[in-house]
Fold these 2 entries.
Entry 1:
Amino acid sequence: MKFASRVEKIPPYLFVEISRKIAQKKAEGIEVISFGIGDPDLPTPDPVVERLRQTAGDGPNHRYPETEGLPEFRSAVAAWYNRRFGISVDPVKEVISLIGAKEGIGHAALCFIEPGDIALVPDPGYPVYSVGTWFAGGECHWMPLREENGWLPDLEAIPADVADRAKVMWLNYPNNPTGAVADIAYFEQVVEFARKHDLAVMHDACYTDVVFDGYSHPSFLETPGAMEVGVEFHSLSKTYNMTGWRIGMAVGNADMINAMLIVKSNLDSGVPQAIQEMGIEALETTDEWLDGRNAIYQNRRDKVLRALETIGLHVDPPKASLYVWARVPEGQTSASFTEKILDECAIVVTPGNGYGQYGEGYIRLSLTIGDADLDRGLERLIQWSSK
Ligand SMILES: Cc1ncc(COP(=O)(O)O)c(C=O)c1O
């Protein structure tokens, strides 16, 4: 049997490899504490789960959904955009439901990329931007994210001929894996760049509502001109602890949303309607609930930062996202340090180079770990480093 090269050439999805290593340790009887994947341990809000109970039996919800999503769901998205970011979007033409942002991001490449086309992709970055590009037959031009640039791509460093050939630029703020944020002034530069080089901007905004210290992150679509060039991806996964339910949305330029509808309606059949009902409920979740949930992550963030400081790794506190991005000790690489702490104290972190070559020299710790495990894991790290 011969598989397509797109299957054979792509490295296994990052967390598949990490899960394999954890399973191996567990089989050896070792208790592993994982700061690996960003998958909220905290529960979906009660009213959201209750909405599923109430609507699971409704006849229409047992049938195929429309790919674009229920009108009520898309209206709830538009109302949320208005409340949260102060902007108006047309729920009919400028919003589409997604089976999680990952699905939308992967499929979006099929709307823009033909064999040989270029996508501008952040490095380090969420792997689906590059994998989607490769599956569509395109090539990635990596935009290095560097500490000295606040982990923002240096747009002037992109060669003009590459920018002219590029079809798409991927961005993600608050950022996975670095925890960095972007402001409207930076987004203005992006809009100008996109206009100049006639490319589409895909902003992955999955973490806008996982924020600390009273910080508020803008939407890319608040930027003047952004609706002409871009689409923003949101996920209910991280905002409302809903990774398992698989629901998100893309919002932005009507032609781009229509292109996504053409691709998606030919490949998937949308989000189950009872889960869209949960989505409607989630989007109406109170600010108090979000503040309380974010306070839990902030407390964990502070504990992680203190423990890292104790073992000699200084990190500036991230303002948003679920991650702490730390430089490995002198003389170590991302892989060697990750392996060392897995072997010597059974702690899992994600090696920075798993997110691209410019992630080398860093590790990522996720805050989606229960408090008791978090405390024990950090204590283990401190004990280990003091030996
Ligand atoms: C940057 C980024 N985008 C998208 C996703 C996927 O979100 P969803 O659960 O909605 O598919 C993740 C998940 O880790 C992520 O980190």
Entry 2:
Amino acid sequence: MAGTLRGARVLKDLSNMDFRVLNMIETLLRKGEYAPVDKIVTYSKYRDKDVDLILSKLNKLKLIRRWSGGFIGYSLSIAGFDALALNTLYNKKIVYGVGNSRGVGKESDIYHAIDFENNEIIIKINRTGRASFKQIKRKRDFLKGRFHYSIFSTSTISAKREFEILTKLKDQNLPVPDIKGYNRHIIAMNVVEGVELINARELRKPIKVLETVIEFAKTLYQKYGLVHADLTEYNILYDERTEQVTVIDFPQAVDIDHPDAEVFLRRDFIHFLDYFGKKWGVSTDDHETVIEYIIGKK
Ligand SMILES: Nc1ncnc2c1ncn2[C@@H]1O[C@H](COP(=O)(O)OP(=O)(O)O)[C@@H](O)[C@H]1O
Ligand SMILES: [Mg+2]
């Protein structure tokens, strides 16, 4: 089943007891590299025999990984972590089902999904740290458990940050996705029509697109105290049919009192204005005026 997500496919095969054990492993991994089987038994209050059956089922589904050294323990796989998040999103009535992949971002996997009213939505699964994981995998195997755990926490922090920002901006008539909810490293939002600006074939009114982006950055800065900090032609979606512009991808956004906030804002706009001039023929030599307009300096 190419294009679908393993952590989603297995959901229907998992019982509440399976999830309780999976949850317990996640919790125990905060304290050590592997979750010891005896602790899983003690905390779950399930019988040894039942725990063994559940663990071998979860292992077979590749949601956990067995390890034996001084004791027998388990670590959580990325699919296991996905399954935990998706199960919670299901229980919170945010995501009913997950469909095909919509693409792989720089630090995320994007999937089609549906909500409980049968509307199409998008889930963004944060994979912050994925690149460094691939590197480390080749090196020291025994680091795996802990390293996974650190990926889980950094990707959760990213998703939480993006969720909080999009929640602040929700219902303000701003050109951003409509956030639906989040859990762990996954956020759910509406489907934004269109393509990334880098892939747009034509802009009917380039100047309007540029204005929208500048006005958005200004509101973000002056009203919400934020700088996007990755505002590029990859993170702006353009719908050729409606000419709608949408700015996406907020985990790295910084508060304006961050010591580098102005550096990031300047970097965003020096790049973006240059790109826009070269590609869409609307240029401004005066980057500083634009930046001052966004910041609101006299
Ligand atoms: N709500 C959405 N609707 C439609 N496509 C989206 C949505 N969110 C993200 N995408 C697509 O997924 C890609 C990656 O998302 P993005 O938020 O930029 O994450 P990354 O940090 O991985 O770049 C985007 O470039 C865009 O094509
Ligand atoms: Mg992006």
